[in-house]
Amino acid sequence: MTVLVTGASGFVGGAVVRGLRARGVPVRAMVRDAATAPADAEIAVADLADAGALAAAVAGTSAVVHAAARLGEFGRPAEFFATNVAGTDRLMQEAAAAGVKRFVFVGSPSALTAPDGSDQLGIDESQPYPSRFLNSYCETKAVAEQLVLAADSPEFTTCSLRPRAVWGPGDRSGPVVQLLAKLRAGRLPDLSGGKDVRASLCYIDHLVQSVALALDAETIGGRAYFVADAEPIAVWPTLTAVARRFELPPPSVTVPAPILGGALAAIETVWRIPAVAQRWTPPLSRYAVALVTRSATYDISRAERELGYRPTVSFDDGLDRFYTWVTETGGLDRLLAGR
C-alpha cells in the first residue's frame, strides 16, 4: 500500500512521511521542488495546479494524505482559494480517477473560526461552520474540508483530521515558533486582560499517529476528527513557562482593548498592500490575537473511539523534546534566523 503524502517538504508533511516509513508503510513524498524533498523517500514533483503532474503523482498509490496548503494570515483570497480549495479538489479528482481508495485530509479547527467569535470550550465535531470567517485561510480550510467529506463514497473513503497549532521537534515556522520570535523581539504584550485562556495544541507525534490510524480505520468515511494533546494548556502561564525555558522575558506589557483594536485595524490596512504583504510579516494580526485571547479546546473522544487515537506525550515532555531539538540544531537564534 503506497501512500502519497503532499506537502512533504513541510514540517507536518515531512513528519508524516518519516512516521509512516518508520511503521513500514511505503511512501511517495510529493513536493514542488525536488531539492526540498525528505531524504530516503520516493519523490513525486508536482504542483496542486497541475492536473497532469498530480495524475502522475497518484498513479499506483492506494491512499493520499493531503498535508499541503497555503498558510498565512495575509494574502489575496484568490491565492488561498486556488491552492486550498481548487488544488484540493483537483487532487481528489485525480486520486479517485486513479483508483485511490482513501483520502486523508489534514484540516484545521481554524475552519470554525469566525471574525468575532466567542470561546469554544470542549466542542466536538457537531460544531457548525460559521457564516463568516476570520480570514481567507480559515474560510478555504472550511470549504476544502466540506468538499473532501462530501466526496466520500464506498469506493473512495475520505476523512478530515483537525489538529490545532501543531508543534514539536522539526517545527521552524509554526505558531509556537512564531510566539517565540515575538517573545525574543519583545513584541508579545500580555493580551489576556486577566482572562483564563485555554487552548488545545497538537504535538507532532500525535498528528502522525492519527494519520497512520486514519489510513486503516473502518467506518470513518465522510467524517471529521479533532486531534489534540490529552490536556489543554493555560495559554498565558504556559507562555511564561516557555519564555523562561528559552531564557526570554515573559509577556509583561498590557495593551488595553481599544488600543489593540485600533492597532490591528491599522496593520491590516497596511498589509493589504501586496508589496508590503509579500516582503514583511505583520507584528500582529487578528488571527494571531485570536489564538491567544480566545479559549479553544476540543473533545477528542470521536478520534479515540473510532480511530483508536491515544495522545501519550504531555506538554512538559513535549517541551523538553522541542527544547533539546532546538539546542541540538544550533539554538534559538539560529532557528529564528532561518524563518
Structure description:
The protein is of the alpha/beta class and 339 residues long. The protein has a single domain, classed as NAD(P)-binding Rossmann-like Domain (Rossmann fold). The chain contains 13 helices and 13 strands. The chain has a 7-stranded parallel sheet, sandwiched between helices. The radius of gyration is 20 Å and the shape is globular. This is NAD-dependent epimerase/dehydratase family protein. It holds the Pfam family Epimerase. Residues 3-225 form the NAD-dependent epimerase/dehydratase domain.
Q: Main β-sheet: number of strands, strand sense, barrel status?
A: 7 strands, parallel
Helix/strand/pairing class, anyone?
Answer: alpha/beta
User: Looking at the structure, what is the overall shape?
Assistant: globular
Question: How much strand?
Answer: 5-15%
Q: Indicate how many domains the architecture comprises.
A: 1
Number of strands: 13
Poorly predicted regions are none
**What is the CATH superfamily label?**
NAD(P)-binding Rossmann-like Domain
Count of DSSP H/I helices: 13
The CATH topology assignment is: Rossmann fold
CATH class: Alpha Beta
N/C terminus separation? 35 Å
InterPro entries: Epimerase_deHydtase, NAD(P)-bd_dom_sf, NAD(P)-dependent_oxidoreduct
Domain NAD-dependent epimerase/dehydratase: 3-225
Protein name: NAD-dependent epimerase/dehydratase family protein
